Please model this.
Amino acid sequence: MSTFNPRKALLGLAAPLLALLVAFLVTSAILLALGDPVVEVWQTILSWPRPRQLVQIVNGATVYYLSAVAVAVGFRMNLFNIGVDGQYRVAAFAGALFAGQAWFPGPLNVLLTLVVAMVAGGIWAGIAAYLKVKRGISEVISTIMLNAIATGVVQWLLLKVAVKQPGSNTISTPPIPESSQLDGLALIPGASNKVYTLIILAVVVGVAYWFFIGKTRFGFDLRATGQSETAAVASGVKVPRMVVSTLVISGALAGLIGMPLLFGQDHSYGTTFQAGLGFAGIGIALLGRNHPLGIAVAALLWSFLDVQSNALQIRAGVASEVVFIIQGVILFAVVIAYELIRRADVRLEQQRVARELAGTRSDAPSVEGASA
Amino acid sequence: MSVPGSGSRHLRPDPAPGPGRGVVAITAAAPERAADPAASENAVELEGITKRFPGVVANKDISFAARRGTVHALVGENGAGKSTLMKILYGVQRPDEGTIRVDGREVHLASPSDAIDAGIGMVFQHFQLADNFTVLENVVLGAEKLHGIGDGARREIRRISDAYGLDVDPDALVEDLGVGARQRIEILKVLYRGAKVIILDEPTAVLVPQEVEELFDNLRELKSEGLTVLFISHKLDEVLSVADTITVIRRGTTVDTVDPASVNARQLAELMVGAELPTPQTEESTVTDRVVLRTEDLVLAGLGDSRNVLDGITLTIHAGEVLGIAGVEGNGQAELVEVIMGMREPTSGLVFLGDTDISDWRTREIREAGVAYIPEDRHRHGLLLEAPLWENRILGHQTEEPNAKGFIINAAGAKADTERIVKEYDVRTPSIFVKAGSLSGGNQQKLIVGREMSHEPKVLVASHPTRGVDVGAQASIWDIIRKARRDGLAVLLISADLEELIGLSDTIEVILRGRLTGTFDPDTVTAEDLGAAMTGAAAPAAAPDAAPDAAPAAAPDTAPDAAPAAAPDAAPPAGDPPTDHTGDVEESR
Model:
């Protein structure tokens, strides 16, 4: 007997493929309606990326992956950590500030910075956890508010510690020492740019996520609470404690989002540091169904669309923002499709169970079996 | 142990199902209307209504008819299938079989708006009013087309209010009004939409006694104007005081339709919980004198100023003993279980497992220490419906062998053991990888029982262990409990099924309003005695019968407490308002 079920696997793939198709059709319709060149747009987006763009796609996906896993941890417990955005900004600032002091040599500085960032993200998420457990405030509301507060707090602190970048108007934390800058990995042949070294971090996080959620007692308690809080309580799960742990872990993972950027690209936290990564993570986690591999595929797709859309203005004369329409429609379609498929799956399995039991045990005194 | 008077009080002694069963019965009780043609006689007729959900049959062959211009009560325990039936009548759910006739005309109700068109309106237990709107705005909301939203609507509201004595001011703000007034607005809303049949779902649960009297006056007004009221409740004395006809539902089917003049609360309680002749307990007592579970003066305060939900519960269970708790639902049984299982902190009092004080322990520690738990609501507390069987085998025993090795879940061990449980406890399933929600109720319950018996429990807390399961599963669950008792398990059995309680228990305690009010020996007790103690309706005449029988047989440590308390408590003084019964407990849960 095996857990693998071809019918289930097929159903699982059907939803995202269907969503992509719907996104393709809806976007085409919008382009047509506005008189934009549909064919050129798709040619540009669907052309095979050049090596340089491949590296950009992988790098973008690395950051998205970390963000989506941070969100997915909460999703598995039915917690909506909308605050990943704020958590990663607080953490990136704290990490950049710490790394910029160069208190420790090269690689040790990198490792300790990761810890500092995780602690900072965890503490920021811990505020929402405290409010939820002790005051009953929905984490959705509090994390959204904390995003706004994070923006202000980081901006204010940045002004206190900032140094001016030579030759520009932007300000930032002191740059990290060269010994701690990560040069990148030349994974893709023919590309002049390099893949973030901290793609390793994304892989480690992915494996750890798979292991802790799927294989440990903690993960079981977490998933049980997500599926039915009442059943989890009766099984002995201390739900408030789980809420705090999960939100803090989610925040700590969010703290890692900015690290590949910090060590591989920006080398400091400043006004130009990439924003909005936390929100993208929500969509990617949904698209990837909170599955460690599913999220990886979704992150690559997202990053692919981002990078490929850059050329739209030049090649097709269409604003690259059209890609947001595609991404948005994919999300809508996929959420609807997943729910439909889930219901179909539940119904089909109930029918199958009833049928098999009615077939094998005609003597069973089960009223239900006979009715199917 | 037959039930005295059974049969004689029935309107129709022969309960054979068949078309028009309810109609015939009721016509007989109302000879003055017998001349009318049957079609216009009954406002609503249900015949053979059956509704299945995957795994459960919620309603089975429900048949009854409500005469026009009467209050027709539907009574039954929680989970008996009343709410499913009401949802079917209000078009929220469609029956798999059976017909509904309104005014003699067959109707198909696919949605609440179909029901409203057919003249059926529903007042839900939880009001659906916008606090910051006026009465007028609430009433017209969604029915703007009928009389507009201005003076036309205001006139119509006044007219209805005056016609039925509802005393509703259309321009009052809802947030300024009390619960009773809000309920009258809900009734008015339904009338405004042209309902001729009004369903009231547990309407008195939220009311204080005076308001209940006012509501009943309103209901009498409504029926005198030719409207029909379907009144759902499990508070028997209220039903007896207001209803013209009572239909009893048990285990998803209509068991009888009776005339309130010919039954008393006790007989009604027996009908509700099933007072068939209990299976005589042939086995010898296995009760030892080793105390396994003991509670000392447990108190759980109610919300706000309401009375205590649990009030000084002291009980003792020995190894090899089944202690049954009888009571009408909502008298504190669920809370008692939650306190023992560590899911709720008692206000005061202690719980001992053996000699160990476990009052401060958390649920997981209590379960690890050997307290097995069969919850009352397996869907909410016993299973993860969307998880496979083998993961459900882990639930509740996440930290124990064979489910875990240290901090890692031992999936292989859990799967192997699930296969064993499926085989040993006859869980009928195609594999252990199907979702728990796909199984029938009986098989789900067998999985839970098998899981709970697999960790060498010292105590089993079993809440309604056979509710909603088929007869075959019921018998095997009873066998499992009997066998565990022989092996020295201490069992706390909570059940609404007297047959189950009498058949399995060594001692029966009755719980009423959070107190243990009587101890009975299942070998000598009659269903009537239990019914009386459960409803607090013990007539003084019945007391001498029950008391000498029960008291000496009771466990010595509980008797001094419980026995003297039973008489005064069980027979409320004449002035006691009929509502102060059970229902408000349920609200506070």
